[in-house]
Amino acid sequence: MPLPTKRPAVIDFLRTRRSCPVRTLAAPAPGHDMLRELLIAAARSPDHGKLEPWRFVVLERAALDRLAGLVRVRGAALGKDAAAIDKAAQAFADSPLAVVVIAVAKPNDKVPPVEQLYSAGAVCLALVNAALASGWGAVWLSGWAVHDRDFVDRGLALGAHEQVAGIIHIGTATTAPPERPRPDIEAITQWRTE
């Protein structure tokens, strides 16, 4: 296979990709067929041992509204401040569609749970990038609610061995995503020759 002589278009996409704040996403969102294509692309993520240590839960409007309400109830029960509750609830209320990536660590002598969690994280990023590359707006969020066991048990009916790796919100971007400072590659890269 010949070596590339110019920068591929996919590198330009990855160098300029920007997530869209959930408040800037609107309907329409991908339909079932398009979303299935995005999920297939995301599932091509690195998966040491071919364990598939993740699964998807698709949240449509009624589910998003239910979870927004549950966030408010749990936030109050946990004594969260009103701003934190509103922010977490609004992410569900504003989203036209969300995919919860569930990390499902599987017993395996060769692949430790942390590597399986990394795979679930790779799926999250791959789904965001697949959505953005397809012309949708998308963002990967988590927040306090997805780390609250009562919320995930009541809201998502997760098994005891499961956890939320991320929630990928997808829809139509209503504004250009904001730019933000990016890492100084020279400051964080070491080149070793021996």
Please tally the helical runs, counting DSSP H or I stretches of 4 or more residues: 7
Report the C-alpha radius of gyration, rounded: 18 Å
Could you estimate the helical fraction of the residues in percent? 40-55%
What is the overall pLDDT average? 96
Task: Name the shape in a single word.
Answer: globular
In angstroms, what separates the terminal alpha carbons?
Answer: 28 Å
Task: Kindly provide the name of the CATH class of the domain at 19-59 and 97-174.
Answer: Alpha Beta
Query: How is the CATH topology of the domain at 19-59 and 97-174 named?
Result: NADH Oxidase
CATH architecture of the domain at 19-59 and 97-174, please?
A: 3-Layer(aba) Sandwich
Strand portion: 15-25%
Low-pLDDT stretches: none
Q: CATH-wise, what's the superfamily of the domain at 19-59 and 97-174?
A: NADH Oxidase
SSE inventory with pairings:
Layout: H1 9-16, E1 25-26, H2 32-42, E2 54-59, H3 61-78, H4 82-94, E3 98-104, H5 113-133, E4 137-141, H6 149-156, E5 162-173, H7 185-188
Antiparallel strand pairs: 1-5, 2-3, 3-5, 4-5
Task: Looking at this protein, list some descriptive labels.
globular, about 190 residues, 5 strands
Description:
With 194 residues, the chain is α+β, with helices and mostly antiparallel strands. It has a domain at 19-59 and 97-174: NADH Oxidase (3-Layer(aba) Sandwich), CATH 3.40.109. Helices cover 43% and strands 16% of the residues. It is built from seven helices and five strands. It has helices at 9-16, 32-42, 61-78, 82-94, 113-133, 149-156, 185-188, and strands at 25-26, 54-59, 98-104, 137-141, 162-173. Strands 1, 2, 3, 4 and 5 form a five-stranded antiparallel sheet that branches. Helix 2 (32-42) crosses helix 5 (113-133), helix 3 packs antiparallel against helix 4 and helix 3 runs antiparallel to helix 6. The longest helix is centred in the middle third of the chain and has 21 residues, at 113-133. The chain is globular. The protein starts with 8 loop residues before the first helix and ends in a 6-residue tail after the last helix. The mean pLDDT is 96.
